[in-house]
Amino acid sequence: MTSLPAPWLSAPGLLTPWLPAPGIPTPGPLAAWLLDAAAVLAPVSCGGCGVDGRSVCVRCRDELVPSLREVDLGGLRATAALDYGGVVSSLLSAAKEHDRPGVLRALAPPFRAAVDSMLARESEPVLVVAVPSSAQARRARGYRPVETLVRLAGRRPAPSGVLRQIREVDDQAGLSVAARRRNLSGALRAGPMVQGRCVLLVDDVVTTGSTLREAARAVSEAQGAVVGAACLAHTVKRKATPR
Ligand SMILES: [Zn+2]
Question: How confident is the model at residue 127 (pLDDT cuts 50, 70, 90)?
């Protein structure tokens, strides 16, 4: 079962202008009605499991109950709400690779739990800064999934560009920890807005933490104070099964 939406749902001039744009927290009654009507006229499939019906089915939503865990990223403390894999991986893939930003709504509550648990520890105002995706990925998607998640979670992200990639990097997948570090070293730069501010870094998935550490380095270089990181999901290392 494909998770791609019916082509006419994204065709300009049809329903698109009436559907909620990415980043708007809650669809109004009209938009919700239109989504339901669209589901009847051109059935959508669940971005998590592919079953026909709503864009994220009840069973998949049940998999998204946050279970906060602290992750030590070599001196940078991070909180993640979910294990990466299964439904979480499918939903992020639907949002990022298959042009279905609407499924991010289902991921917003656990993401908010992680963000709020970090913000609750701070007495000073905190700037919420999203780790940027590559320029190539931004162009392909036309939106920034992590900033959209922050908005859907009811928090205000720092303006895009406060933290930016200043050179292209290789795909991190498949690289060792040391190679990831080399690949990312000096790749990010933070703007003057972070100077003297408390900064919470946010990202969708944390694996080795290389990207978040590079982001923290860039913020520190610009004289910002990183209070930690909040992520939707954490990639749990699986122990090799003895054969
Ligand atoms: Zn499902």
Answer: very high
Domains held by the chain: number: 1
Cα-to-centroid distance, 29 and ligand 1 (Å): 23
Asked if 87 and 49 touch (Cβ cutoff 8 Å), the reply is: yes
Cβ neighbours, 10 Å, residue 184: 22
Evaluate whether residue 28 is within a structural domain: no
Mention every residue, 6+ apart, whose C-beta is less than 8 A from residue 67.
81, 82, 83
Q: What is the mean pLDDT of residues 176-193?
A: 88
- What pLDDT is recorded for position 134? 79
Domain that holds residue 210: 66-234
Ligand 1 centroid – CA 88 distance (Å): 11
| Cα 54 to ligand 1 centroid, rounded to whole Å | 9
